């Protein structure tokens, strides 16, 4: 990822975090009855949806000439030379009462240097205490040996999981559940339903989308020139969010457009498009998704929160520590690697300069020293207790 891309990601993250500080004097339900209606609909939806399961299919698109250098300048010759279309599919299951989830993704990674793409499959779930993940390697990678054999097949994250916040492409599933990511809040493993504080919002105006009137709600901060979040709400359709923007200095940096359809469970998303812009409002990336299946309040199988340990896989266990002074981006506190034997039992290993070896624990060393001392002491005592031969 180049520096401008990192800058955009930071902007989107900061627009959703502490940069958007509540200013109660300017907004909130107590100041505008229109917000009372919208937030009441969102709360009603949140209370009625205990769980949701959604499977989608779509694509990620890098438009022709959309790549830029480290300074945000389009590269020459233009790259990519044509639109790059990468298929993507995923399924997301959310269990709100227990704050558990399971996410499965199949996508293709694009290599800008070679112009080629590679299939990638990954799965993660939060079981109520830890975020577990798996990324099965392709047979060709395993056959290559070397670094591929030392790439973890999966692992476990504990502690501060804000760094694993759900990406924007998954937000419509949360919107269908009455969960709207408001300014200053994150949706991440272990916190699927952040607080709904309307004080960070105000009605910005009215708009029309596909011939239907919408109320535009904007999340704000002390300096609206820095960043904002904007929600276009179709009040007559249970206050569904049909458009969601994150922007800066009056220009959108990220724009999501959602289409809905009526169901027995209310208005549910059927498709959506996400557009990511460069600093000069050039389109950098598109994502388009359509729903294959969506079900509300269906029971979840407990096996969805279990991963069998396959012989030979390499796992990484990482402790992200606790929240430190409200810093949103966690730092790895501790991390260890484990290799599964033929019985699925895990043994801690150390990977040093491309070489894997079994880690010798301190207790094992202590036991070895004690055992050696016992042997030596036994030999000494035996010699002392040996009868003296008469001369």
Characterization of the model:
This protein has five helices and 17 strands. By secondary structure, it is an alpha+beta fold. It has a 17-stranded mixed β-sheet. The longest helix is centred in the C-terminal third of the chain and has 24 residues, at 362-385. It starts with a helix and ends in a 6-residue tail after the last helix.
- Residue stretches low in confidence (pLDDT < 50, at least 5 long) are 1-25
Helix content: 10-25%
Could you spell the SSE succession in H and E letters? Answer: HHEEEEEHEHEEEEEEEEEEEH
For the largest beta-sheet, the strand count, sense and barrel status come to: 17 strands, mixed
Average the pLDDT over all residues and give the rounded result.
82
Distance between the termini: 88 Å
Beta-strand level of the residues, as a percent range?
35-45%
Count every helix, treating DSSP H or I runs of 4 or more residues as helices: 5
**Rg calculated over all Cα atoms:** 27 Å
Tally the beta strands.
Answer: 17
- Shape, please? elongated
The class by helix and strand makeup works out as alpha+beta
Could you give a quick summary of the protein structure above?
By secondary structure, this protein is of the alpha+beta class.
């Amino acid at each position: 990822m180049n520096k401008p891309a990192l800058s955009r990601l930071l902007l989107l993250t900061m627009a959703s975090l502490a940069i958007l500080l509540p200013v109660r004097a300017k907004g909130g339900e107590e100041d505008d009855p229109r917000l009372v209606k919208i937030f009441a609909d969102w709360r009603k939806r949140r209370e009625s949806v205990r769980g949701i399961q959604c499977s989608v299919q779509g694509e990620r698109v890098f438009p022709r000439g959309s790549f830029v250098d480290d300074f945000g300048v389009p590269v020459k010759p233009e790259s990519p030379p044509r639109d790059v279309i990468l298929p993507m599919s995923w399924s997301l299951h959310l269990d709100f009462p227990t704050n558990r989830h399971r996410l499965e993704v199949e996508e293709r990674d694009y290599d800008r240097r070679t112009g080629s793409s590679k299939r990638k499959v990954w799965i993660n779930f939060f079981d109520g205490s830890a975020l577990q993940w798996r990324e099965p390697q392709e047979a060709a990678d395993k056959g290559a040996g070397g670094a591929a054999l030392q790439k973890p097949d999966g692992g476990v994250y504990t502690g501060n999981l804000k760094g694993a916040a759900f990406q924007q492409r998954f937000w419509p599933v949360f919107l269908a559940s009455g969960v709207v990511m408001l300014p200053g809040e994150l949706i991440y493993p272990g916190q699927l339903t952040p607080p709904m504080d309307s004080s960070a919002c105000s009605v910005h105006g009215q708009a029309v989308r596909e011939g239907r009137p919408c109320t535009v709600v904007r999340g704000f901060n002390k300096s609206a020139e820095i960043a904002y979040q904007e929600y276009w709400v179709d009040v007559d359709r249970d206050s569904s969010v049909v458009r969601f923007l994150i922007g800066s200095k009056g220009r959108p940096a990220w724009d999501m457009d959602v289409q809905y359809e009526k169901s027995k469970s209310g208005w549910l998303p059927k498709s959506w498009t996400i557009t990511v812009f460069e600093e000069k409002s050039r389109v950098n990336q598109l994502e388009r998704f359509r729903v294959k299946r969506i079900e509300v309040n269906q029971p979840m199988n407990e096996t969805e929160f279990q991963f069998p340990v396959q012989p030979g896989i390499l796992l990484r266990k990482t402790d992200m520590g606790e929240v430190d002074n409200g810093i949103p981006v966690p730092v790895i506190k501790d991390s260890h690697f484990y290799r599964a034997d033929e019985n699925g039992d895990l043994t801690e290993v150390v990977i040093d300069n491309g070489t894997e070896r079994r880690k010798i624990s301190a207790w094992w060393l202590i036991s070895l020293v004690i055992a050696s001392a016992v042997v030596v002491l036994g030999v000494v005592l035996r010699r002392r207790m040996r009868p003296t031969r008469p001369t």
